[in-house]
Design brief:
This protein has 181 residues and is of the alpha/beta class. It folds into two domains: 30 residues; 127 residues, 3-Layer(aba) Sandwich (Glutaredoxin), CATH 3.40.30.10. It is 34% helix and 19% strand. It has a seven-stranded mixed beta sheet, covered by helices on one side. β4, α3 and β5 form a beta-alpha-beta unit. The longest helix has 23 residues. The protein is globular and about 75 Å long. The relative contact order is 0.19.
């Protein structure tokens, strides 16, 4: 009834199914950033954390300074190609949607000197705050995969309206904002 070749085929199929099941149940574990004890990772609907970061001149700034406006937080780094590509688009949105009370705030997950040097050559028209390479501010705002760019839209009341990992195209940015403004 069963010869050795049929038995081998069945064994390979069972092994393949078992490996597939293992991979599918553990795939989301790969690349997850560990969440430090006591940290709350924010989700849509949560009140934003009032981070204190430094601006390009080294002055402390708090996110609560932007209360009463829609705030698009954009986490980026100088070494991130997609981050650099979307920055002119975010700068344009900051200017053209100011009448709808949208304020773009860049948060650089990078070394302060590198950020200042980069922005001399590629200036933007929105404020940039420096979080530092070892800071966990993007994780706190929901970036559990450590993806850059990572963006969060915050409503005038300080509640998170949307979170997005990855690069914006002009169409995806417009659609994302249109859904909330």
């Amino acid at each position: 009834m069963f010869n050795r070749s049929n038995l081998a085929i069945v064994a390979v199929a069972v092994l393949g199914a078992a490996l597939g099941l293992f991979a599918s149940t553990h795939m989301n574990d790969f690349g997850e950033k560990p969440i430090p004890p006591g940290m709350t990772v924010l989700q849509v609907g949560d009140q934003r954390a009032d981070l204190e970061l430094t601006d390009l001149e080294g002055n402390p700034r708090r996110l609560s300074e932007f209360d009463g406006k829609f705030v698009l937080l954009n986490f980026w780094a100088t070494w991130c190609g997609p981050c650099r590509e979307e920055m002119p688009m975010l700068s344009a949105a900051h200017e053209t949607l100011a009448d709808r009370k949208l304020h773009v705030v860049g948060i650089a997950i990078d070394d302060g000197e590198a950020v200042r040097g980069f922005l001399k050559d590629y200036p933007v028209r929105y404020p940039v705050l420096i979080s530092g390479e070892d800071d966990d501010s993007s994780l706190r705002f929901g970036d559990t995969q450590g993806v850059l760019p990572y963006s969060v839209l915050i409503g005038p009341d300080g509640k998170l309206l949307a979170q997005r990992a990855g690069y914006f195209t002009e169409a995806s940015l417009n659609g994302w904002l249109r859904a909330h403004l």
